[in-house]
From TrEMBL:
The keyword Repressor does not apply. It comes from Prosthecobacter debontii. It comes from the Bacteria. PANTHER family: BLR3025 PROTEIN (PTHR35369:SF2), BLR3025 PROTEIN-RELATED (PTHR35369). Pfam families: IMS, IMS_C. Transmembrane segments: none annotated. This is Nucleotidyltransferase/DNA polymerase involved in DNA repair. Keywords: DNA damage, Transferase. GO terms for biological process: DNA repair.
Amino acid sequence: MFAAWLLPRFMLQALRARQPDRIAVLEETPCKTVSQQENTLILSISHGAERTGVHPGMTVSQALARCPNLQVRYRDGQAEQAVQSLLLKAAESWTPDYESTRPGICVLDLSHTRWLSQEIHLHAWQDRGLQMRQDMQTQGYDLRVGFAENADLAILAAHVADPVRVLRAGVAEEKHVLHDLPLTILNPSPPVLEVLSLWGIRTLGQLVALPRADLASRLGAEGLRLRDMAQGGKERLLSLVRSQEQFREVVELESPIESLEPLMHLLERLLQRLSAQLAASWHVAGSLNLTLRFADRSSHERDLGVAEPTREVPVLMRLLRTYLEGLTAAAPIIGVSLELTPVRAASSQPTLFERGLSDPNRFAETLSALEVLLGRGRVGRAELLPSRRPDAYHVAGFLESFTASALASTSDADQFIGLPLQRFRPPRPALVTLHQQRPVELRLDGTVLSVRESRGPWLLSGNWWDLRQVWQHEIWEVEDMQGVLYRLIQENNRWFVEGLYG
């Protein structure tokens, strides 16, 4: 279900003009001469001016001939933008999915609202529409609300609303009320509107009566689009508005903070304000960025990930407290900055047999406490790096998702067939005797082993672009007189037994 909000006579409402007065709205830039003003086209008129026979599209001189006491005003672009922003802000309090269709009109997608499945009766929708209308009425604006099962039909319903109208798809009798609506509400391009006016087509009903094939051959795709909209429209995706609001609070302290509890009290107040802003925009916090400025002009910044995105203040406070309890500072705090990264709340429901953490945020607090105890980068899981160097890995957080390289390393394509290698960790130092650059004798843990056969060398190297991390291995496979296969590596002119096969 979709809801369309319409501010009728939008330009006049933006000017805060009284509808009973006889007022006409012209372009924003005032004309320099009287003759130029008389030839200017009227964009919008009030109810009082309409009753005298004045209509949009007339020139000022034509309108004054019919209504001598007509008041002429110029449209205010900044005021219109402010009212449109106010309209969208009110829509955001009902659903996160809404479209700014054109000035004075916005469409709300209500298909994901929780109360939709419960309110299927006509009176229930009427009550909801009156509540929506009241949001703008309290600020002095006249709002019309239309409900329908697609966005275009909801817009048409708003044009016939008084003040709320619900149009149900498949009910032909309800769509007949749309036939008397003017063609201009479909917002056709000026050339097409001029052609239709020459044909005498001025209402939606007259447009629908035209043969579809003939209309397409003469007006093309736009003609078909206008005819479809006049019949109630089709399913389409909304051009959703996504606000780029920044959720950040900065405080400069008059009195420095020297202990944890005053700082936590301040952070709690900041989180309460930020959480309210997140709730208003239908977001949750995916991470926190905390910056502390100290009296010695130094600063400390840290990003804290939220295991399960939330805007619950107690959960975020526990995360901050766990981190700050392990932080030491050499000077008092004179400034605090807290920023939340907004993300969409997860809407998927876990399956019956899915196993997961009962409280991911509590688990994250435990990991943070361990990191404070053991040091940063020492808590997590070992994840292989995309490198040929043996045992090349890094420590990834337990709550981080697996990278593409880590998933690729576990695929069936990388499983080699052959004798398994029993690795020695760490590799055992050895003395190797060479003859003609090939191993012939191996001394390992005081035991002398004669080499019956050897294969190699295989050279491995990497990170040649970084002198601090460059590495190079020479690998040999040797077999002693008892048939035991060993794997030898030479690194920096030193020999090691990396393991044995079988």
